[in-house]
Amino acid sequence: MDSGIGGLPYYHHFHKANPEETLVCLADREYFPYGSKDRPELILRLTELLNRLRRRYDPKLGVLACNTASISALQPLRESFPDLPLVGTVPAVKLAVLASKKRHIGVLGTSRTIGDPYIAELTAEFGADCALTAIAAPDLVEFVEHRYAESDAQERLAAVLPYINQFRSAGVDAIVLGCTHFFFLQDVFKAAAWDMSIHDSLDGVSHRVEALLDQGDLRAEAGGRENILFITGKGSPEPVWQERARAFGLTLRTEQDYCS
Ligand code: DGL
Questions:
Q1: Shared fold status for 5-89+203-258 and 93-200
Q2: Which of 26, 35, 47, 106 could disulfide-link to 167, CB 3.0 to 4.6 Å?
């Protein structure tokens, strides 16, 4: 689950290693962006979506492939769905702390994520001697969701450079991509922030899902069925959703598919 296309790299990463598992990626297009919503709103929305997913697909495990949703709602969702194992996405602060030689990490996320005390708590937990520069980048989330597909290399670089420059002048040498949308710009970050390391939680989330499948003896036995990209919202989807589904090998489903 994510507010938009941020869940797709997580889907892809997990699917490559576990092709026998069937996946449904939910993109909450109707409610995008999550970063500007407050915690109670997100808890309500995600509870409602999980109920919808359970009615339609009855999943054996759920992944919040969204830092904002995880930081805001993972705990209450676990309490509301005690029989459904749920994996959250935690910004890769631990990896950045391990990599930082200057002992100064940067976290880039949504306004909701950056405004939450959790990021400072994580940094203190894993790197008590590490300084933290945390920057909210709602425009970068919008860029990835709405502009990325038709943008060229120059535009992508222009979108990330202001953030890299802020981190560089603050003395940061390890950046956490603390929003799943930013993974689409990972290569741009790596090239432009040549003097810093870039960290994400793709491996962490995939490995956690695999561990829970093993622990619960939940692995699929046969080959995976059709993998689905389910998008919320009324009205026909913008053509770009069809392209995204095709690019990731997913079958697109909309609300209308369940009303007819
Ligand atoms: N992709 C999301 C995250 O990881 C949230 C983007 C948004 O909807 O604001 O935080």
A1: yes
A2: 106
Assess whether the C-beta atom of 67 lies below 6 angstroms from ligand 1. Answer: yes
Which residues on neighbouring strands pair with residue 108, listed in sequence order?
135, 177
Q: What is the pLDDT of residue 260?
A: 47
Check if 25 is active-site: no
- Measured between its terminal Cα atoms, the distance across the chain in Å is 24
Q: Is the CB of residue 49 less than 8 Å from the CB of residue 232?
A: yes
Residue 36 CA, closest ligand 1 atom number: 9
Task: List the CATH code of the domain at 5-89+203-258.
Answer: 3.40.50.1860
| Residue pLDDT, tens place only, 194-239 | 999 999 999 999 999 999 999 999 999 877 689 999 999 988 888 9
Which atom of ligand 1 is closest in space to residue 113's alpha carbon? Answer: 10
How confident is the model at residue 130, as a pLDDT?
98
Rounded CA-CA distance 102/84 in Å is 41
pLDDT at 150 over 90: yes
Burial 167-200 (b: 16+ CB within 10 A, else e): bbeeebbbbbbbbbbbbbbbebbeebbeebbbbb
pLDDT digits (tens, 9 = 90+) for 26-40: 999 999 999 999 999
Instruction: Look up 130 and say whether it is catalytic.
Output: no
